Amino acid sequence: MSPVEDPEVRIIRLEEADSTNEYAKRIAQEVPEGTVVVASKQTAGRGRRGRSWASPEGGLWMSVILKPGKTDPRLVFVGAMAVVDVLDEFGIRAGIKWPNDVWAGGKKIAGILTEGRAGEYVVLGVGLNVNNPLPEGLWGSATSMLYLVGRKIPLEKVLGRLIFHLNAWYRVYRLRPDLLMVKVRERTFILGKSVEVFEDDSSFVGRAVDVLDDGSLLLDVGGELRRVVSGEVSLRPL
Ligand code: ATP
Ligand code: BTN
After folding, report:
1. Residues contacting ligand 2 via CB (< 6 Å)
2. Which residue puts its alpha carbon closest to atom 3 of ligand 2?
3. Which ligand is nearest to the CA of 41?
4. What is the CATH number of the domain that holds 214?
5. Structural domain span for residue 139
6. Total domains present in the chain
């Protein structure tokens, strides 16, 4: 399928992609920073650790190519904060489930997936449930803007606002990453709460205490402080 390109804002629009992250990685070295890839649907949308991401028509499935000069686990928060701000504009109060999920109304509404090649590029992928149907298996754990607002949401407007906020938070990240982390802390709804932490083949329960400036999460595990890094764990709020 030949992409429709907009030279001004460098948005590559696709009817269908395997995964916008995969597409973006394939072109990352040839295009300028800020190039956006958006697909009406994905046939192989992915979450972390290769988990599948349901991406039928009606949702916002996009990736932006960044060239910050290094990979950094905090880049995921640029995406999470941008989604939180977009949702605010539509009257939806959302929070971050550290590190890469955005939740609203007690369920997951969006996920962020950052992937990169050290020193060359970072692809920041955002999947946001807008008007798309959710597979039955996710009804207990996922939600959408349509469901929360009660009416169809203009997808193009959501994309425009998301790009705006991604730009703004990326600028904050580059100039004052500490300020990005202040906002992340404000919006991380698990702080002070008990969570189950899943590592490769074990799990433990702790109380989330803080998100540190390097993006890691500090937990109180039976009175002892323990720091976990985003690439290595998954959390479940209890
Ligand atoms: P964590 O992010 O803490 O690792 P997670 O369970 O949210 O845990 P991810 O890999 O981040 O896992 O996200 C992928 C998961 O998201 C899938 O396993 C599936 O349960 C869920 N999921 C898939 N598609 C959607 C969607 N469109 N909306 C919400 N959730 C989805
Ligand atoms: C997660 O919650 O684990 C992250 C989900 C990320 C989904 C988005 S949709 C656009 C981009 N393309 C993908 O295949 N994944 C991300």
Report:
1. 19-21, 42, 45-48, 53, 55, 61-63, 100-101, 111-113, 125-127
2. 47
3. 2
4. 2.30.30.100
5. 3-187
6. 2
- Classify burial at 210, counting beta carbons within 10 Å of its beta carbon; exposed 0-12, middle 13-18, buried 19 or more: middle
- Range list of H helices, the chain: 20-27, 75-89, 145-149, 155-175, 177-187
Nearest CA to ligand 1 atom 21: 53
- Is 204 within 8 Å of 196 (Cβ atoms)? yes
Are 30 and 83 contained in the same domain?
Answer: yes
What is the longest distance spanned by two Cα atoms in the chain?
Answer: 57
Give the predicted TM-score (pTM) of the model.
0.95
Q: Could you tell me if 230 and 157 lie in one domain? A: no
Half-sphere exposure of 178 (CA within 13 A, CB side): 0
Regions of the chain short of the pLDDT cut 70: 1-9
Residue 53 CA to ligand 1 centre (angstroms): 7
